[in-house]
Amino acid sequence: MPATKVRSKSHFKTVQTIDLKYCPVTFTQYESTRTGMRCVVVDQKGPKVNGYFALATEIHDDSGAPHTLEHLCFMGSKSYRYKGLLDKLATRAFSSTNAWTATDHTAYTLETAGWDGFAQILPVYLEHLIVPTLTDAGCYTEVHHIDGSGEDSGVVYSEMQGVQNQSGELMDLQARRLLFPEGIGFRYETGGMMEHLRVLTTQRIRDFHKEMYQPKNMCLVLTGEVDHADLLNILDDFEETIIDDVPTLNAPFKRPWVESTPIPALTKTIVERCEFPEEDESMGEVMAGFLGPDVHDQIACAALGVLLSYLCGSSISVMENTLVEREQLCSSASYSTDTRPNLVIWFVLSSVETEKLAEVEERLFKLLKDTAANPLDMPYMHDCINRWRRQIKLRCENAGDFFADPIIEDHLYGPRDGSELREFADIKELDTIQEWTDQQWRDFMRKWMSDAHHVSILGVPSKAMSKKITDDEKARVQAQQEKLGEEGLKELAEKLQQAKADNDKPIPDSLLEQFPVPDTESVHFISTITARSGAAKSGKQKLDNSIQQIIDKDEGDSSVFLHFEHIPSNFVRIKILLGTNALPVELKPLLSLYLMNFFTTPVMEDGQRIEFERLVLDLERETVGYGIDLERSNAEMLYIAFETEPDSYEKIIRRIRTLLFDAIHDPIRLQASLTKILVDIPSEKRSGSSMLGAVEAMLSFDQTSSGRACSTLAKSLYLKRTRKLLKDEPDRVIEQFTKLCESLHRPENLRIRVAGNIESLHNPVSAWKALTSSLDLSKPLEPLIDRKEKLTDYARTPGNAAYIIPLSSIDSSYARIACKGIDSFSHPHLAALIVAQAALDSVEGPLWVAVRGNGLAYGTNCGYRLSTGLVSFSISRSPDIYKAFMAAKEQVEGYASGTLNFDKFALEGAVSEIVLNMANEQPTMAAAAATSFTNQVVLGIEKDWSHQMLAKVRDVTPEQIREAMTKYMVPLFNPKSANLLVTCAQIMTEKLEENLKGAGFTSVQVKALADFEDDYGLEVPGGDDAEGDDEEDDEDDSEGDDDSEDGETPGSSEGSG
Ligand SMILES: [Zn+2]
């Protein structure tokens, strides 16, 4: 740490230093004796420094003042009266900013690579919060206005328009209105309801700011490698500049929440319906809420956390096991808690058949009552406590960020003297509840849940409501337009123009120049030590380090592929990569089922059948976490991962052996897994951005690609038919599933990574005999799969292809364009392309300003993928894809040709963004180990490849950038060299098609999602119609929605006959 000295006359006193007993983390709490501003620093090694600047905010209306204020704070401050300055500075200092408005607080975030950048932005940021400009012009454009066409607009207004009528929002708000009476702040929509935002005044926001944004109501939480002395000097200097703008320390101030009316207890149980707009009326949701224990009661809060994970934490816990796995009444059962003076407990059951909502809600409460009426499974309760303890330790190790929420909550509800923060030092409360008897647990459960009054909301999808909202809104806008008349509209257009001009004053270069770009040396990346064993050594340079020596000593004749990453950690992370190339094409879509089923299957152990619940129980005991999925860095592979403690290393290896070689393929379990996958498909198909990805996968890759075979459009028909087959001919499905497992589970197909403190492992290499004994290890390691071999002509030679896919579920549009790019890590143009994309797409950069800034889309994204050799450009949530596309085209072509020029700030900003991205990739020790493995094993590049690239990136010249743009980005906007995919609201289709044709996309085609589905040749006797008949009375049948979308079952109406 640099040796900065704290000035002797600092106004910040150290309230306390807290060393956590269960992990190597220290909190230091400071408080200003001058303003009362508070600050907690969580020391942690790594490249990232994160800041959370939180203010307790309480309001008793739905005006949206808290949320609008959050936006306006970014529009300029006392000494920096420029919109966007904060973000411009941040993007030069390896930083990014963000903010959120919760019901009880507003938090602003600053994440930075390295302390130097953070220190530079901090005082500027704080000034924006304490003395923002809050101008009328800013409020007009950011919050709400009526534009020249008579439509309501504004950044916050549009944001709330997008969420106000979503099922989750509507249900949550209705539940909170029932839980909290008038006058209790928790019942209000702090984001702002649209009808209130339309009448919100700047003065109301200013008043709210004055009341709430006082230094004494603010707490700064910093995590990472923080220079404490430098921090205190900065804060002292900052206070000096605002001391005359804020109320004095002794001025009367009512602490939000703490000094407000307490929340009254619920006096009765209420069950209400809540309609939400939705075209597909088949599935709804159940939500239940309770008022829980006092937030200051540490023991009760800990007990509640453990009890919730006992009830609802995994597939073997009571709620999930009964409602999801066994009775299949919903696709998932989940819980959450809100920290309030009394904790609030929530349960959500998702994807419940609409007709059964009331019945399922009753079932939930009967289940809770039954559970509390009978002895609990105390050994499992203790498992939950132990697991909770291990998870806390793991999360502390992974990121200091883990503490941001509890520290903010302490600021909101805890005593000012820091005495409750001190209780973080240990987790003694877990020792206390460890001693609780069955009776104590059941009394606790009855008190807060099964016998407690509660509020239940049945979320009912409504097509009629969907229509009514659209019609009412149309009528309202029309009336508004008529009332304003041509003259009125013209005035409004001018007013908006004026406000924009006031906001968009250019930032003088001289101001930006006052902030030099920090040195990249100030970013301290985490380094790991690599060691290799067996097949992992082949073709690689021999390593000479202390860890390699440990490995060599234990290696013996082991040939299994083992890659070690040594990091200081109390946990070991094992990841096994498996190739999928040997899997026959016609079985590829079964991979989704394999992934879903892998950890919830019965197995044979010592000649005995062990049910899946027992397996999961053991896994929970032995690990802190486990998972399986397709590998992100190469979707032709899958990974199986475990996080555990060094003592359980060998146990986990034996467990892996059981899972790979002794699983029982049970039709009942496979059926349950299939149902879980199929229930979620309708909602996957409702997402504009996911469907863009799914269609792209279907078009770009051939059938041998596993990434493609696991996409929604490959699995929907195939797995539906598989479910039918599983009922009629289970043996056939089991035989195929067995074939699939056998093709994957071969020693020559495994690449294993072990990351952790390798010195703490007794037999890092020889322990793996538990997996490999009696297996045939003579075959050579199979090569990695090159995704390029699986590309179709569509992706190999992009150009002259354009598809519009209308979706009834979205009211906006999404696009992805791709053209030929770069396909290797060593390509000489790569560094220039990376800088070009970062410069174009950065926050407040050319594309941001041209597209997002003009309301043409929520965001754009430039990308390149070396594994496919394609360059891409995406536009998300756009009201008009064509306009967004044309605006982006103009920018890219302008910068490529040199008619537009990047200033030096833009290029510095681009490099800064690349540095931040690198830090984001490996913020923690575990992530650094993961990156090192992926680089060396999957991508075949050096472990510090990104550092080498950073050096190249800094040397890129403007000329090279223009060249890269001309070669790889301009072709994106030429119909002859680009492929274009769009998902959009139905109503947009016709005009878009016309516009795109006008722009040269002569081959544009309008297609349905179903046109891209692929059944991989799987057929069922009688076809899908027969399945419809057969499953008519099936409880978990979800065909209704599928059919309406794919339109493939004209005979489905017969099903009801
Ligand atoms: Zn917002």
UniProtKB/TrEMBL annotation:
Biased segments, Acidic residues type = 1014-1048
Residue ranges of region Disordered? 1014-1057
Start and end of every Peptidase M16 N-terminal domain? 60-137
Query: Gene3D superfamilies from the xrefs?
Result: Metalloenzyme, LuxS/M16 peptidase-like (3.30.830.10)
The segment(s) forming the Peptidase M16 C-terminal domain are 200-377
Q: Which GO terms describe its molecular function?
A: metal ion binding
Superkingdom of this protein's organism: Eukaryota
SUPFAM superfamilies cross-referenced by the UniProt entry: LuxS/MPP-like metallohydrolase
Would you tell me the protein name for this molecule? Mitochondrial presequence protease
Which species does the entry assign this protein to? Cryoendolithus antarcticus
